[in-house]
């Protein structure tokens, strides 16, 4: 090949290479800059939403809010709605605290946090409630869901419907536990609404949220809510975490008869979330009570609407209302008790049992006051009833507006 032709060919090759090199460099530059934008976009799409809200429980007044209506993931705050529907079932009598629920394969397969329930095993309703409050057990949540809804999916529909009825306009529930589901969403405002409803509508059950531990099969199960142990006046209610939500906490505290609710979503860690909640509550307690509707004093401690004394109202912590009636004629005489409340102190329980005996008069003939320690509670009972007398005594108390249910002796 002539020298000139070779030179021309070489020049064309070099030109083509230069064009190719320039194209490669251009694409490389785009690829280098693109990930920075794309990474930021992905992070923005998946990063937890930082949101907070501070509410007066009595008036419902919002004292402070940031991103309170921005959609995020509820994580285990979901279990507050599972518990609300459970409390409502207890109040209707469709569930009993001592009722044993069977663990399905689906429930047992839930990932941690869990109690490691075995398929075919059982757990009582009250144990399941305590498992949700302390361990945030996903398997126990599904057990309750299946008992109340037939299936977890059907129960989730009931949860969403209940949320709408409460005014939680942006919340959709897809499961009973809060495990990751991209369609399960809520807002800080909706979680504050739910917290307020639990406190005000289910005062007799709210004390469950105060529990920091419970005994399960010979071991002590401890709770996740560390702030409750160190913030004065705080008595609940629920923590939550999944990667998409960050660290969540719905909290409530009382000082001088004034109750506040603080919800923080999307914390970077449990410690920073707790600090943020404490700061919110501090801000709120420094502000005067809303003049429109002062918060009632310790609404969570009322046991019945006709508790016999102020001391009783201020120490009662839970009440159950099962529908089971001691109607069995085969029960031995004197083998039944009636339970009229559960209290934070033995003295209040004894006072309630004594007052109930005097109130019943002849209906309590042969029965004697009995105080039963259960966890951190003292249950007030009158023991020694025949089955028919226990039934009649509870009927009389309920007609007068007092709480009561019968317990068969063991």
UniProtKB/TrEMBL annotation:
UniProt-annotated catalytic positions: 76, 79, 136
Keyword Signal: yes
Similarity comment: family membership: Belongs to the peptidase S11 family.
PROSITE patterns, A to Z: SPOR
Binding site for substrate: 238
GO molecular function: peptidoglycan binding; serine-type D-Ala-D-Ala carboxypeptidase activity
Protein name, UniProt field: D-alanyl-D-alanine carboxypeptidase
Pfam families: Peptidase_S11, SPOR
One annotated GO biological process: peptidoglycan biosynthetic process
UniProt-listed Gene3D superfamilies: DD-peptidase/beta-lactamase superfamily (3.40.710.10), Sporulation related repeat (3.30.70.1070)
Domain SPOR: 330-410
Highest taxon listed in the record's lineage: Bacteria
Keyword annotations of the record: Carboxypeptidase, Cell shape, Cell wall biogenesis/degradation, Hydrolase, Peptidoglycan synthesis, Plasmid, Protease, Signal
Tagged with keyword Signal: yes
